[in-house]
């Protein structure tokens, strides 16, 4: 199938964002594991796997549309020296990702590519869930304090 005008550029922009997210979440998982926050480690690892799945689907879809996936560069990966830095960086990242997805959905609607639009709509659901999770974590830190929040992150959710 041949891609409609501008769709491959959008998909490749989203792919760069998703691949960047994989690296960022893997880094954040490793940092949390290193700091002893097992619960956060597990959550960031889960987010990384979710982004791998999105990336794989995007690559398949780009190939289906006759394009070439752009996998040779990433956006800047945000690091941090403390958990709150990671959460704030990830919230900003997810908000930017949501904007890119919304623009892509609007473009796909305009050019009549409903298959790609549907794929992006599925992705934005996950992105909005991520935004909610990061907002909740930062709100919890404000309510109970960083030390109490981190004390809850030491133990794994799994038995």
From TrEMBL:
It holds the Pfam family Ferritin. Fe cation 3 binds at residues 46, 50. Gene3D superfamilies: 1.20.1260.10. Keywords: Heme, Iron, Iron storage, Metal-binding. Fe cation 2 binds at residues 51, 94, 128, 130. It comes from the Bacteria. It catalyses: 4 Fe(2+) + O2 + 4 H(+) = 4 Fe(3+) + 2 H2O. Residues 1-145 form the Ferritin-like diiron domain. GO terms for cellular component: cytosol. Fe cation 1 binds at residues 18, 51, 54, 128. GO terms for biological process: intracellular iron ion homeostasis; iron ion transport. Its EC number is 1.16.3.1. GO terms for molecular function: ferric iron binding; ferroxidase activity; heme binding. InterPro entries: Bacterioferritin, Ferritin-like, Ferritin-like_diiron, Ferritin-like_SF, Ferritin_DPS_dom. Belongs to the bacterioferritin family. Iron-storage protein, whose ferroxidase center binds Fe(2+), oxidizes it using dioxygen to Fe(3+), and participates in the subsequent Fe(3+) oxide mineral core formation within the central cavity of the BFR protein shell. This is Bacterioferritin. It comes from Nitrospira defluvii. The gene is bfrA.
């Amino acid at each position: 199938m041949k891609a409609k005008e501008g769709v491959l550029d959008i998909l490749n922009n989203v792919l760069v964002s998703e691949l960047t997210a994989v690296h960022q979440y893997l880094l954040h998982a490793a940092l949390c594991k290193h700091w002893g926050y097992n619960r956060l480690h597990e959550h960031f690892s889960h987010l990384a796997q979710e982004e791998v799945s999105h990336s794989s689907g995007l690559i398949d879809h780009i190939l289906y549309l006759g394009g070439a996936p752009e996998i040779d560069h990433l956006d800047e990966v945000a690091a941090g020296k403390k958990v709150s830095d990671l959460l704030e960086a990830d919230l900003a990242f997810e908000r930017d990702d949501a904007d890119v997805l919304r623009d892509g959905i609007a473009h796909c609607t305009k050019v009549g590519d409903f298959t790609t639009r549907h794929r992006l709509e599925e992705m934005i659901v996950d992105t909005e869930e991520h935004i909610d999770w990061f907002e909740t974590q930062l709100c919890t830190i404000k309510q109970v304090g960083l030390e109490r929040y981190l004390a809850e992150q030491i133990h794994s959710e799994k038995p």
